[in-house]
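Feature request, filed as a ticket because there's no other form

It would be nice if the structure record came with a short human-readable summary line next to the tokens. Right now we just get the raw output. Example of a typical job, pasted below so the devs can see what we mean:
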Amino acid sequence: MSAPRPVRWGFLGAGFIASHALGPAVHAADGAVLHAVGARDPGRAQALGPAGPIGSYADVCTDPDVDAVYIALANDDHMRWVRFALECGKHVLCEKPLGLDAQEVAIMAAEAQDRGLLLVEASWNRWHPRTRRFEELIVDVAGPRDVRAWFTFPTVPADNYRLDPTRGGGALLDIGCYTTSAVLSALDADEVSVARVERHVGPTGVDLTTTAVLTHTNGSGTITASFEQPESQGIAFTAPGLSVEFSGAAFTTWHQPCALRISEGGEWREEAFAACDPYRLMVEAVSARIRGEDAWVLPLSTSALVATALDQIAATPTSDA
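Raw output as currently delivered:
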């Protein structure tokens, strides 16, 4: 029996993530091929090594030989190009955050559903075997849960869109989506309340640091996202009879071995995970689903839940207000 035809991908954008992560991931993936690239810089597009044409974003979306579109654009461009790609009949993998708010996510999700197309947020860390194992460990935990998730680094270039409030900038939307997603997953929560928020707003009007405490009937969680604190990432989970900690970078481990530290009944042990490429795992899973195969992809309901929680956090006044 011959192998199924690989999914032909078209990229919108040829920036750092596309060139260093997703491009190599598609080239390495089983069941996927990079067919076309749309970018403002033809040289960067060519460097991605597509098998087919280089053109504009619209050219990629309307290309009849493209099955699926990957969107690697600034946050404020996500909804426009997701909707256009869907209108062109393409499945879509879009960088996180999928939308600027929950309303945008709802609009895109409804259009994908109406058209019978797959739309997936490219939260690549969720495909990492360590993340999947963590979710497996905590699924049946009884009793109150407590989780802390943080993602911080000390600076963002002055001309970067992450510092522009009109383009979806700010630490909460950019990296707070990682920490908020981790807390919601760890609490097994379909909704949360925001108990407290602390934020530092920079001179451009975006939050440089946001810390929030989220509560649910299953427990509570604290998220921290910062563009001005020392570089650090982590997830720490505690419940009766079980504690789990991520060793090393919790959200951006890529081509590196890593581990979970697990305590059950007070005795700590470590589970090791071999180096892997979660971007490739994501591309292979999404491609498989596009072909109609059984493969796990991040549900749109999860993306909607995270977007709603981010909206709640952003709308909550600081504790000293």
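Something like this underneath would help us a lot:
The CA atoms of residues 127 and 319 lie 35 Å apart.
Residues 129-275 form a domain with the Dihydrodipicolinate Reductase; domain 2 fold (CATH 3.30.360.10).
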